[in-house]
Amino acid sequence: MENQKSAWNRFTTRLSTIGFSPLGLILLLALLVLPLFPPFNQEHILRWLIMGAFLAAQAVAFDFTAGYINVVNFGFAAILGLGAYTAAIMTNTSPVLAIQPGLSPWIAIWIGAIVSGMVGLGLGVLTLRLRGIFAAVMSWFVGIALLGIIRNWTAVTRGPMGMHPHSLLETTDNLPYFYIIMGMMLVVYIVLKLVVRSHYGLAFKAIGQNFDAARASGINPTYYRVFNFTLSAFFAGWLGGFYAFYFGALTPQTLMHTSKTVEVLALVYIGGRGSLWGGMAIAFPFVFLIEFLRSNFTELPGLHLVVYGVLMVVVMIYYPAGFAGLYDWARAKLLSAFARRKSRAQEAEA
Predict the structure, then answer these.
(1) Gap between the Cα atoms of 67 and 279, Å rounded
(2) Which of 43, 126, 133, 220 has a CA that sits 20 to 30 A from residue 27's CA?
(3) Which structural domain range is residue 240 located in?
(4) What is the pTM of this model?
(5) Distance between CA atoms of 242 and 86, rounded to whole angstroms?
(6) Neighbours of 155 (CB within 10 A)
(7) Pairwise CA distance, residues 154 & 82, whole Å
(8) CB-based burial of residue 171 (10 Å sphere; 0-12 exposed, 13-18 middle, 19+ buried)?
(9) Collapsed DSSP state (helix, strand, coil) of residue 198
(10) Those residues with Cβ within 8 angstroms of residue 193's Cβ, 6 or more apart along the chain or in another chain
(11) DSSP letter string over 29-53?
């Protein structure tokens, strides 16, 4: 019995190092097998699940910055779009565009990530010496500038006419894409969770809670904030490459607009800022909610943004910790109740 308990404790400890609880692992496995059973094996529902995983991965990358160094990157969607456009341009073989590298999408997706990471590095060096709203506004301005460049550099991006890059896979089935984006989501989450659990994470939290106190204790705020911003931008560009090669259609307005950043921001704050997993967990039910609203309230475009706004206001007023905080509260209550029941049982036996 003791050996079994010890093995279980070792298992849960190792699971915790990559950011999962036993319940989280069970739910993840359930999600992975969900598309194998009806009605979730239908193509349109598979697309919803793919979009859920795509938004979930974005929420993790966004929360890495907003939740830890306390800087809201309003240019997040533009950086993601930059990765998407870079990856698409790298695969282009059409003479319509000025550049025809003709690379494989599997290579181009990483080039898009690197370019986005480099832009994130430059943006971080320029703006993260600023504090609070100034850094957030500067990231927004840079995002608007990137949107303008993509829209007006028609010789390379085709501007408002959009691009139609190659597909990542030869098949038109959605199931392989679901497992690809789920794998990408897990990579983003596990890598960033490991960073957060390292000494870098401690520095991030110190900077986010009190900038001046962190600097007085010997932490270089600019270095850690730039590192954080660069890593978040790298993963945003990586996810942008998936978007390009899965959806096969890129336009600046539908991909890089600030409203796309607001959607991810809402997921993070409703899920629980600073948790990494909160926004990821609620992304899937929210996608189904969005699709329900879009299909049943076609006369009210943008209704989902109103729902996001209302939920954000409710969460920030009544439960600022979000869904992740609610889960932690419920878990603590249950563990306390079990501990009391066990203590009473032991007293009764005595």
Answers:
(1) 11
(2) 43
(3) 37-318
(4) 0.93
(5) 12
(6) 11
(7) 14
(8) exposed
(9) coil
(10) 18, 19, 276
(11) HHHHHGGGSTTTTSHHHHHHHHHHH
In contact, 92 and 273? CB cutoff 8 Å = no
Which ranges of the chain does DSSP label H, i.e. alpha helix? 2-17, 22-33, 43-66, 76-90, 105-127, 132-152, 154-157, 175-197, 199-209, 211-216, 221-247, 252-256, 258-271, 277-296, 303-318, 322-349
With contact defined as beta carbons under 8 Å apart, do 270 and 323 qualify? yes
| Cα separation, 132 vs 137, whole angstroms | 9
**DSSP secondary structure code for residue 128 in this structure:** T
Residue 52 lies in a domain: yes
- Do the beta carbons of residue 181 and residue 57 sit within 8 Å? yes
**Cα separation of 222 and 226, whole Å?**
6
Percent of the chain topping pLDDT 70: 98
Structure tokens at 117: 């990471």
Instruction: Flag whether 9 is in a domain.
Output: no
What is the per-residue pLDDT for 1?
57
Are the CB atoms for 20 and 28 separated by under 8 Å?
yes
Token reading at 154: 């028609």
Q: Which residues contact 27 (CB under 8 A, 6 or more apart)?
A: none
Structure tokens at 112: 């898009």
Does residue 188 surpass a pLDDT of 80?
yes
Between the two ends of the chain, the Cα-to-Cα distance in Å is 22
Which residues make beta-bridge pairs with 250? 163
Model pLDDT for residues 222-274, shown as the tens digit of each residue:
899 999 999 999 999 999 999 999 999 999 988 998 889 988 998 999 999 99
82 domain residue, yes or no: yes
Q: How many domains does the chain have?
A: 1
Cβ atoms < 10 Å from Cβ of 170: 7
Residue corresponding to tokens 């609610």? 326
Cα–Cα distance for residue pair 274/193, rounded to 1 Å: 11
- Residue 163: strand pairing partners: 250
For residue 160, the SS3 value is helix
